[in-house]
Amino acid sequence: MFFSRVFRHFPRVFLLFALLSLVTSGCSLGLLDLPGLTGKTATPTVPAGPTPTPQAAAAVTFSVVLPAPLPGGETLYLSVLDEVAGLAMNPVNTPMQSMDALHYTVTIPFSLNSVVKYRYLRQGTLPIPEDDGLGRQVRYRLFHVTGPSTTEDIVASWADTPFTNPSGRILGRVLDAGTRSPLVNILVAAGGQQTLTDADGGFVLESLPAGTHNLVAYALDGSYQTFQQGARVEDNKSTPVELQLAAAPLVNVVFTVSVPQGTIPNSPVRLAGSLYPLGNTFGDLLGGMSGVSARMPLLTPLPDGRYTLSLQLPAGADVRYRYTLGDGFWNSEHNLDGSFVTRQLVVPNTQETIQVQDAIPTWQSGPSAPITFELTVPENTPVTDTISIQFDPYAWTEPIPMWPLGNNRWVYILYSPLNMLGSFEYRFCRNDQCGLADDIQTGSGQLGRPVATSLTPQDLQDQVAGWSWFNGSQTASLVGYPVTARSAGFWAGVEFLPDYDPSWQPWMAAAIQNVQSLYANWLVLTPTWTVSQASPFLFAPLPGSDPLAVDSADTIARARAANLNVALFPQPVLPVDAATWWSTTPDSSAWWDAWFARTQAFARYHARLAKSSGAQALILGGEWVLPALPGTGRAPVDAEARWRSLLAEVRQDFDGTILWAASYPSDLAALPGFARDLDGIYLLWYAPLTGTSVDELKASAGQRLDADIQPFQAALQKPVILAVAYPSLDSAAGASVPVQTILQPGNPAGGVNLQAQADIYQALLLAVNERSWLGGLVSRGYYPPAVLQDASASVHGKPAADVLWYWFGRFLGLVP
């Protein structure tokens, strides 16, 4: 799913490389005086103050070996990338000099202690970026500038040619140099490949061309000093390494910026930067971007019209940044010639506060005048929602929060980079969830609203008639039933959807508050790792697709602060459904060794995350591991021993409750022996129920529970928790739609019927109420960032949530 999300617009992004150099010069800025954003415009002066000492420069020579001579008429470029704007958006391409048919070189000066992000590019009729040894486009290479130096690279292949040369791998660990403890989520790069370290600090870089590569370990938040060394790779061999990184002390840095004359007072100015806390996700997001506006820190307006922001930044960190009224691309600051302003701060190692005094030249780029988007939304729009605007200049880019005017009115003024645009499209959505929580006019794959740049200011007046998958508040007609309160160990919970996106994180706090309002006592989080390659088996956290440990820890902390117990149920992100994926995997002993090694790393990563963040439970298993279980005919003969070894390691990392996720009914009869030794069963329940009334559905559910689950639980003598997923469909009770489909938000699998889902939950909870031996009920598939009244299994904002509210509060004795 992730890969389709990232690459669905790739051909149009690819063509953008040829367009980005067509930047016209800027002109003076003119702004409109909007209702609700009026006020006197201050013309601030920048007082004298200490600023960081400019960094000395060092010449870096980049030498590269190509896999084959360039075709006639092509030029080789070194492309230095701007990750703040997005890797496709603002590259600086420098032609390289040919030493012979395969060897090229170029020398470029950079500030000392810079971390350069770059890749190689063939330019003919169209630009062709380099691929790695696995046939994937190189995101970027890293080089740490510590003085005049030379780096030697090897291009594995290009997008139009396969990789056929000898290759090997680098594997190793990244440790804290002081404590020798493993470092998690450190970006390790070599040979055009990148990966993040696991809980043991471990990493693997596969299919690297034979030869010497520059190996770099880089902390996404700058908290450790960048490490760099050469690593020799030999054909069909592994190069083991141990990298030790020194922790960086924090320095207080105060940014104060003077905005252009005419900037509307109290406009939301953000700091878009290259570090993770500054909005950079290090992922390939929509339209080739890497940053999310809502994750970028907001500056505070000062009385004199300036803005300020105080941050704790690591000493030695190379911070690339720009000020923005949008993100690193849209509405960011520009030079008067129309080019992007890219600022750099290498944080000095000092105990004193660093004062950074900046002045924004202009918000505008080129002669085109600003475009004002004024919007009126329906009165039933949730008051907690933020309205976002999304632009499509060549493909949909990341949404940007609009500015509230009150009374269901929103506004956004677009200043730049209008010099790169002619005609383009835009659309509105809720909470940055464009593509799902859309304006009904542009939802469901319809085209956006058209607009074109102009030399005169434009003020577009739009109205949202309704929202896709939202019809206002939907409540259930609750019938009072006597409820038997349960013991303290009973689970009344909600499980979040595992289809994570970095845009979700700003809305997690509101989602947790909503779950808490249901009287739930458990929140089940489903953090993911991505399987990016079946053979060799590459399974690791992928930025932009999977929540990093810092994000998961933040969500857990918020849930614990809301008095919710937290369980982690880690999930893989597969490129296709699990059955199809397994049908393509090899059966060799070496492959199974890799599978169990990475799956153990996956389990231990989340066990340590649960331990360090205060989560109370860990759930392992699920349908995706079925072919690897003993007795399946596919798994190796020692599968039972391998799983027991894996679980023993997990027990050392985490001393809380460990449950095994098993699917009903297929997994119960073949439940492996090691699973019976855990603390209980998290039973994935999506069983067909017969009948149309609540009473008939209750009887059908009770029949299954008594015939299949009660004997199983009695023999097991451990808690069994029902983890329930049912869609909001006419045919929901029949469970005819695959569970992978109903767990997808915006699921259009049939006619939406919110009451059908509510009736099923009412029936199941009535059945649970009569069976004291059940350990709880968890509602699966909750979509955190926005209410969607779609056909999916999410209960967020649906009548089924009211049913849970009624039963959960009474099961837990919180409501009489």
Textual characterization of the structure:
This protein is of the alpha/beta class and 816 residues long. The protein folds into four domains: 273 residues, Immunoglobulins (Immunoglobulin-like); 111 residues, Immunoglobulin-like, CATH 2.60.40.10; 82 residues, Immunoglobulin-like; 321 residues, TIM Barrel (Alpha-Beta Barrel), CATH 3.20.20.80. Helix content is 17%, strand content 30%. The chain is built from twelve helices and 43 strands. The strands form ten sheets. An eight-stranded parallel β-barrel has the order 33-34-37-39-40-41-42-43. Strands 2, 3, 6, 7, 8 and 10 form a six-stranded antiparallel beta sheet that branches. Strands 4-5-1-9 form a four-stranded mixed beta sheet, with no helix packed on it.
Residue-averaged pLDDT, rounded? 92
How many domains in all? 4
Helix/strand-derived class? alpha/beta
What value does the Rg take, in angstroms?
Answer: 28 Å
Indicate the percent of residues in helices: 10-25%
Output the number of helix runs.
12
